[in-house]
Amino acid sequence: MSDNSRLDDLAELETPPPLPRLSALLRPHRLVIIAVAVALLVLMAVKMRWDWLPEYAGMLVTGLWVTVLLLIASTVLGLLMAIPLGLAQASGPVYLAWPARVFCTIIRGTPLLLQLWLLYYGLGSLFPGIPGIRQSFIWPYLREAWPYGLLALTLSYAGYEGEVMRGAFAGVPNGELEAAKAYGMGRFTMLRRIWLPRALHRALPTLAGETVVQLKSTPLVATITVVDLYSVVGDIRQSTYLTYEPLLFLAFLYLCLTGILVSIFRYYEKKIPTRGR
Amino acid sequence: MNWELLALSPPGWGGVLLKGLVTSLEVAAGGFAVGQVIGIFGAAGKLYGGPVIKDLLEIYTTVVRAIPELVLIVLLYYAGTASLNNLMGALGFSSVDISGMLAGIIVIGLVQGAYSTEVLRGAILAIPHGQIEAARAYGMPPAMVMRRITLPAMLPHAIPGLANLWLVTTKDTALLAVVGFTELTLATRQAAGVTHEYFLFFSAAGVLYLAVTLVSNVLLAILERRVSRGTVRRKA
Question: Which keywords accompany this UniProt record (chain B) (predicted)?
């Protein structure tokens, strides 16, 4: 048995990843498509104005940074919320499962834009009425927009991921949990060593997809005056009076960001062994 | 909170919100329909088309799925109408005035089309191959195979994905608020801005969106049961 699995490992190590031949990638019709694309790019370079790009490069980098930070912070915090949400729905007592289900339904049933505006304008208008909050140390932060953006993005990710984690927790084979119980593991140890790793493993491909969706949700925070990549480009459009160029460049930047995100997840999915799934 | 502001007649804003809801639903239904038409042709092209069509469709689905909906909507809404008018001008026609509703439907439809293409492609691939071979053995021409076998047989596989897409579409219409199209979200914001009751109105709009989702869920469950009559169900 152990010999076999070692042989499997060796076989896995020694098979080179199948590389597509260049000739297969560059078949004649693809050359036509590439030529058309290059022609379009040249046309864009000649017909469109790009002289604003160096001038606003600093702003773009700042916006990019805010977008990436928002993405990372909201996915990490959202995942931390999603685990208890999923656990409560998969096996919690009724008084935990129901609130979790209602929360996920509300988040998934309303547009993120509305949630953002509800938090920023609605909650923001409620705060001054609460006595003592003006003297508190969080007041300066509450007057800025980004905490509301981060909160809305986090809650949204938690709502969608809560459902994913519910499925992942429920899908872990019962035998593994019974085996853990038979070993005399406590409930918390069982969760930490068996249940959670197995559930996260199952959920990873969906999490990867949802994180790309999350990246694509971040520009909405621009509507509550958070200065992210999208709103920077909005400023550029206003000050340069250009329509196509900044928007096309913005689309290109998001395309790159999504590509990077997808390849990071591909890399990790490959590293995690899929055997025994 | 001043609940009377939600009344239907003019001192209250309930009527404005409901009108916004109807507009939202109209755009969502139109966009979804456009998306399905694109999706059917897209899926057929991706599966049975020539190499050029396959590659072009691949570029379409990849690009649309990788760029945020908000960016696409702003790009298509502003740059799209400007390009169309430039084109009309170059061809010697007078410029056209595209209504917000039509632009919204086209934009949402183009976005949903890319997702729908992938959903339908997967669903068509899930049909047992024997069914299509049997149809061919009967001498059916390809279009008839598509109409009589492929499309009905893929529905049980496609409905869960399409249901998801419909729910996404109803919420994507909110993004049109950003380009100034008055649907539910923008109407809500206007109502809230005038009365300063932000929390009340945004919560009310949330309830309306939630109601749309919950009603859709019930109808979609019925539809799913109907299209998967006679198919063997796996235990969930």
Answer: Cell inner membrane, Cell membrane, Membrane, Transmembrane, Transmembrane helix, Transport
The domain that holds A155 is classified in CATH as: 1.10.3720.10
Segment A21-31, tens digit of pLDDT = 666 666 777 77
Q: How many domains does chain A have?
A: 1
Q: Where are the domains of chain B?
A: 23-182
Q: Are A251 and A259 in contact (CB under 8 A)?
A: no
Question: pLDDT by residue (tens digit) across A37-74?
Answer: 888 888 877 777 788 888 888 889 999 999 999 999 99
Angle at B138 between CA B133 and CA B142, to 5 degrees: 65
CA distance to partner chain B, nearest, from residue A113 (Å):
7
Buried b (16+ CB within 10 A) or exposed e, B129-168: eeebeebeeeebeeeebbeebbbebbbbbbbebbbebbbb
A49 part of a folded domain: no
| Residue A31 falls inside a structural domain | no
Q: How many CB atoms lie within 10 A of CB A176?
A: 13
Contact A110 B206 (CB under 8 A): yes
Distance of residue B153 Cα from the nearest chain A Cα, in angstroms: 27
Rg of chain B taking only CA atoms, in angstroms: 21
ipTM score of the complex? 0.84
Residues of B in contact with A216 (CB under 8 A): 67-70
Tokens of A191: 């969760």
Of A114, A123, A247, the CB nearest to B206: A114
What gap in Å lies between CA B167 and CA B212, rounded to an integer?
Answer: 9
A225 lies in some domain? no
Closest CA to B16 of B211, B203, B224, B185: B185
* A33 with B214: Cβ contact below 8 A: no
DSSP state for residue B150 in the 8-state scheme: I
In a domain, A174, yes or no: yes
Tell me, what's the pLDDT at A192? 86
Compute the distance between CA of residue A188 and CA of residue A170 in angstroms, rounded to an integer: 17
Kindly report the CATH class assigned to B23-182: mainly alpha
Q: How many CB pairs under 8 A join A and B?
A: 125
Domain that holds residue A140: 68-216
pLDDT in tens, A80-136: 999 999 999 988 889 999 999 999 999 999 999 999 999 988 887 777 677 777 777
Q: Which residues of A touch B75 (CB under 8 A)?
A: 247-248, 250-251
* B186 vs A contacts (CB less than 8 Å): none
A254/B185 touch (CB, cutoff 8 Å), yes or no: no
For residue B76, the chain A residues in CB contact (below 8 A) are none
